[in-house]
Design brief:
Helices cover 63% and strands 0% of the residues. The protein has 82 residues and is mostly helical. The protein has one domain: Orthogonal Bundle (DNA polymerase, domain 1). The radius of gyration is 12 Å and the shape is globular.
Length: 82
Amino acid sequence: MELMNIARVRWACRRGMLELDVLLQPFVENFYQEMSDEDKTVFIRLLECEDPELFAWFMGHEVCPDIELARMIVKVRGRPAP
């Protein structure tokens, strides 16, 4: 997925679980454009994970074993929507 193709990133944020949609879609709308290319790359890697993994990580049921993805999860969870 291209870093700058916001339409593709928005589409990838549409998941099969409402709980993930509520976290990911506002984050992309409000913060993706201002992120560094490195952070965008990590965010896209996060979007490539399966829904059950994402749900477990975002809800705190499991710890993400990838340090970069774990940091991005903290960023997504910590950003309130304007």
